[in-house]
C-alpha cells in the first residue's frame, strides 16, 4: 500500500476553546482523507490554528433545538465518506487505531458494521491511567446507519448543544477495533471540575424525570445500566475503580481520579436531593410566617 494512501473516513472534531490541544489532535489524523473542525464560535485561536493545519473549519451556532451538535454534523456537513470518526479536540487516535481503521477500510470489513466502540486511553493529571475505570466511546460511525436520538432533554441543564452521556442507536452490528483513542486534556484540573459540575446538573435532572431517564438508560452500556441504582454509589465507584480495578497501580493519578469521579457521583446525588426539596417554580409557601419589618425603627437604626 502506498505511504500516501488516505483513509476514506471523514474525521469530525467538535470544538469549543480547544487551542491548547487542537494542533496535536489534527497532527494525529493526517492519514485520513477528510478532516473537519466544527467549532462553536470559540473566542480563542481554535479556528485559525485549525485552518493553518489544513483542516476544513465550519462555524457552528446552536439554535436551542434538535438536532444537537453531532447529529447536526451527520445531517449537514459536506461529508465525502459514509464513515465518520468523531473525536474531541483533546483526543487523538493512537497509531495502532489508525492502522486498524486503515486495514478495515482497505479490506471492506468496516462495512460489516454500523458503528465501532473504541477504548479510551484516558489521561488524568498528565498521566495515562492503565487501570481503574475504563471508558468506551462509540466514535466511529456510519452516517446513514447511526442516529443520536431526540430524547426530550432540551430543557435539561448542563449539556446545551452537546448530546448527553449515552450511545447513539445503530442499524447493524457494533464492532470493536484494536488500538485506543487517547484522551489527554491539557486544561487544568479546575476545568475538569467545572465541566463535571455541569454534567452533574444534567444527570440529576434526568434522574428526577423517570420517563427521560428510562429512554437514556436504554442507550447506555450494560455496565452503566447495572450500576445506575447501586447503593452508596460514590463509595461503590471508588472501591470499584481504585481497589477492584486496581487503580492504585496508577499511583497518585489513579487515586485522584477515583476520588474525583466519586465526587462527581456525590454531586449528582446531592443535586437530586436538593431538587426534591425545592418547591415547584412559581409557587409560594403560604404556610411560611411572613417577616414584618418595622420601617420606622429600621430607618432610625440606619441613621
Automatic annotation (TrEMBL):
This is Glycosyltransferase involved in cell wall biosynthesis. Pfam families: Glycos_transf_2. SUPFAM superfamilies: Nucleotide-diphospho-sugar transferases. Residues 10-106 form the Glycosyltransferase 2-like domain. It comes from Kineosporia succinea. Gene3D superfamilies: Spore Coat Polysaccharide Biosynthesis Protein SpsA, Chain A.
